[in-house]
Design a protein that fits this description.
The complex is a heterodimer of chains A (233) and B (285). The longest helix of chain A is centred in the middle third of the chain and has 41 residues. In chain A, 10% of the residues are buried. Chain A is built from seven helices and no strands. Chain A is 80% helix and 0% strand. Chain A has a domain of 96 residues. With 285 residues, chain B is α/β, with parallel strands linked by helices. Helix content of chain B is 53%, strand content 12%. The chains are: A mainly alpha (233), B alpha/beta (285).
């Protein structure tokens, strides 16, 4: 029973959504909207589970004084401060006079703590990519050389300074002649061509493969061959 | 000219050492390359690409007061790249007297909506609830996108400030995708796939996207099929849009730094390859 009921629910929900897509009647759309509302509510519970997990993992880290326990304090303090300002700043929780101040505090913390921290972590990637590219991006084979050439072309053609250098080269070779075989923006056009043609062809092949796999996976879940919603059983 | 074995070996050592250079030197070069152009602009002209121009032209032709939806599907980590896009598009919409609706599928994106709309509408006197509204975050991803097709008010009963849907002038007459001129998804994740699948294919919504520079190649196939009206790629996309709206902003300010950084990486890759080839050549025994 513990297996059959969830499998039956997954089967019915899956089949209803598939039928609704192909037969969009008033009743099927109403049923779809109800199912979607349920899904949104369940998704909200996933957030609660996530928060619970974050808090319990960090508290147990603190209790055991595991390596890096100090960071657990930072995590819990950050979570508590943002939660307090976020919840108290809502219409339901605070008096109008306080609400604006609490809301602004929340926005201030977001703008001046979270945004710079996230941006810092993300921007560090540029430095590591530069170092990794220098050490590992080698033209050892024909395929690697082709990849390298395409990457360098797109990199230079996607920035104004690169396009400007291309225009200067054009001027040096053809001297502004109207009979030149390419325009001064040839580097940008070439980059667009790489993205539009070879890149699109390759991406589309990957997408078709992934889409077919997704259909197969969805069918396996609907008919109950795979049950990822049941702890891997 | 012939080299002695010692000289050849010395040369090879030099190229080997060059390949193993302390990575902090690379960090320093890149840091200088990013910081110096930021404060001393090179003034390179940004030439708008076709995908950017198509989005601009589409928005430019929308009738007055037509709602435009922007989905802020990114967090603060990608804000440096995507916020300038949001501000540039919002400013264009406000100049055309279009209404703006902000939503997000990312919990950290909710606060970015208000900031971008306030920044874009400040000089033009645009007001929250009248000219723009932030509906905030709702969990569910694809379910939210599908739900909007059934009725925007069924997903967002209130805006992020708690004001009921029916009392917001910016949402007057907006039921679902049929009433929205275009949905622009600004994303640092796979959110554009969700919007394509559910908003475009299920409800025929007009769709465009703005994504980070590393993601842009993955979305070109949708441009060719017409599923995306236009694409803004990375900070350059923002700079191009600013150029078209004749309102320079953070996108154009950052382009010089990005230009130099790209050229430095290209130079490093070439140098690394030269060093690799040279170090493999040596006296044969």
């Amino acid at each position: 029973m513990r297996t059959q009921v969830p499998v039956a629910i997954a089967f019915i929900a899956g089949v209803v959504m598939v039928i609704q897509f192909f037969v969009p009647t008033h009743h099927s759309m109403a049923l779809r909207d109800t199912l979607l509302a349920w899904t949104r509510i369940i998704s909200a519970f996933a957030l609660v589970v996530g928060i619970g997990s974050l808090v319990s993992i960090n508290i147990s880290k603190l209790r055991r004084l595991s390596p890096g326990w100090i960071y657990a304090i930072v995590t819990l303090a950050g979570f508590a401060v943002m939660a307090v300002f976020g919840i108290l700043g809502t219409k339901e929780a605070a008096a109008p006079a306080w609400r604006h101040t609490l809301d602004r505090c929340y926005q201030w913390l977001f703008d001046n703590v979270q945004v710079p921290m996230d941006a810092t972590i993300f921007s560090l990637l540029a430095f590591f990519i530069a170092s990794a590219a220098y050490r590992t991006f080698r033209a050892r084979t024909f395929e690697a050389s082709l990849l390298l050439a395409a990457a360098l072309l797109v990199m230079v053609g996607r920035v104004p300074l690169g396009v400007e250098i291309g225009a200067k080269l054009h001027e040096a070779i053809w001297g502004g002649s109207t009979t030149a075989p390419v325009t001064p923006e040839w580097l940008q056009s070439l980059t667009e061509w790489v993205l539009n043609c070879p890149n699109t062809a390759a991406q589309r092949a990957i997408m078709f493969g992934a889409a077919l796999a997704a259909v197969a996976q969805a069918l396996r879940i609907i008919v109950g061959i795979e049950r990822p919603y049941m702890s891997g059983s | 000219m012939s080299h002695t074995p010692d000289a050849a070996s010395g040369n090879r050592d030099f190229w080997v050492r060059l390949q193993r250079i302390d990575r902090r030197w690379i960090f320093l070069v890149l840091f200088v390359g990013v910081v110096v152009p930021y404060f001393t602009p090179l003034g390179c002209r940004v030439r708008p690409s076709d995908p950017t121009r198509k989005l601009y032209d589409f928005i430019d032709k929308l009738p007055e007061r037509k709602p435009v939806m922007i989905s802020f599907d990114y967090g603060p980590g990608s804000a440096a790249e995507l916020d300038p896009m949001a501000v540039a598009i919002a400013r264009h919409c406000f100049k055309k007297n279009l209404r703006l609706i902000g939503v997000t599928l990312d919990p950290t994106g909710a606060l970015l909506i208000r900031k971008a709309f306030e920044k874009a509408g400040k000089d033009l006197g645009k007001k929250m609830h009248e000219d723009w509204v932030s509906l905030g975050y709702k969990p569910g991803g694809g379910v939210v996108v599908l739900g909007i097709g059934g009725g925007l008010d069924t997903v967002f009963a209130t805006d992020s400030e708690g004001k009921p849907y029916g009392e917001i002038p910016a949402l007057e007459g907006v039921r679902n995708y049929d009433d929205i001129g275009i949905v622009v998804d600004l994303a640092s994740s796979a959110a554009p796939d969700i919007w394509i699948r559910y908003a475009r294919e299920a409800f025929k919504a007009n769709l465009a996207c703005g994504v980070t520079g590393v993601m842009v190649a993955a979305y070109y196939p949708y441009l060719q099929t017409g599923q995306f009206i236009g694409i803004l790629g990375g900070l350059k996309g923002a700079a191009e849009y600013e150029q078209l709206t004749e309102a320079p902003g953070d996108g154009q300010i950052g382009m010089d730094s990005q230009s130099v950084a790209h050229l430095i990486v290209i130079a490093l890759v070439i140098l690394g390859n030269v060093a690799s080839i040279a170090s493999r050549r040596g006296p044969r025994g």
